[in-house]
Amino acid sequence: MVSIYSRMLMVVLCENYGFSTSCLDELAKITQYIDNKKSNVAAIFYKVEPSYIRNQKLSYEVAMDEHEKRYGKESEKIRTWRNALTRVCDLSGVHYKDSVYESEIIEKIVKYISTKVAPAPVQLKHMVELDTRFKELKSVLHVECNDTVRMLGIYGAGGIGKTTFAAYLYDKIRHHFESSTFLLNVREKSDKGIKGLEDLQKTLLCQMGEDIGTMTCKRRVLLVLDDIDSIEKLNLLAGGRDWFGSGSRIIITTRDETVLDYHDAEIEKFKMEALNDCDSLELFCWNAFGVNRPTRKI
């Protein structure tokens, strides 16, 4: 029998959540999905501070004390529940406070979830040669490795396919990460000056489930910055490796190779070459005639 997994799991944590043994059992199971990357997991903190849950304070302290009396302080069940409560607070998600209308928080949750399960930001059809190039970069991306943050720069002439390739990479590997964001057309959107850059920063942090100024460096994220045209913009959106959790991957596309040379962190480079004659003909035939090669009839 083939196992079926949800693309997104959502945990709603409230003040009395810790008193429910069934909820804690479910939470322990859900945290396993975080580690094996089978599903994205989001946390909704409903009228409760994440720090109270992480450190088991206030109602969570009372709840865990009651559970310890029943199961024993050193029992495996108690350890599992405590670890799960700590682990869930490392997730991206949405924090609901009394000062916000519930309709607003629902809208925020919907937007947040949609960014996690949405299709690739660029429509991918007739992907000539992309899989071959992806295999070339597997050792560079090495998504199974969590020991460091890796940055990849894809550079080449305009219109050569950098954005399409970056979208292909994004779609292939994003399920490995706790949070993923694709910022499309950075150069065009930032031409509005400071306002444009601020909007891009807000979009980035919103899609990653963070507030401005509180971006965590604990979570493993995938970030694609498309069409970066200056080191200043790159620094504003991805200042350094310490901005991101260990195991994160940052992919940058640019027409200007020198942008990749002046960043504080080392960036692996990949030059996007034009398709050869055979592949160019195949791509043309797909788009013009809906077949991969010309026929005598054509």
Describe the fold and architecture.
This protein has 298 residues and is of the alpha/beta class. It has two domains: 110 residues, Toll/interleukin-1 receptor homology (TIR) domain (Rossmann fold), CATH 3.40.50; 151 residues, 3-Layer(aba) Sandwich (Rossmann fold), CATH 3.40.50. Helices cover 42% and strands 14% of the residues. It has eleven helices and eight strands. The strands form two sheets. Strands 5-6-7-4-8 form a five-stranded parallel sheet, with helices on both faces. Strands 1-2-3 form a three-stranded parallel sheet, with helices on both faces. Helix 10 links the parallel strand 6 and strand 7. It is elongated. The N and C termini lie far apart (46 Å). The mean pLDDT is 83.
Which CATH architecture of the largest domain would you pick? Answer: 3-Layer(aba) Sandwich
Shape: elongated
Largest β-sheet summary:
5 strands, parallel
Strand content: 5-15%
Helix content: 40-55%
The N- to C-terminal Cα distance equals 46 Å
How many E strands? 8
CATH 4th-level superfamily of the largest domain: P-loop containing nucleotide triphosphate hydrolases
**What's the alpha carbon Rg, rounded to whole Å?**
22 Å
- Order of SSEs, N→C? EHEHHHEHHEHEHHEHEEH
CATH level 1 name of the largest domain: Alpha Beta
GO molecular function, one term: ADP binding
Protein name: Disease resistance protein (TIR-NBS-LRR class), putative
Pfam family, one: TIR
Domain TIR: 1-117
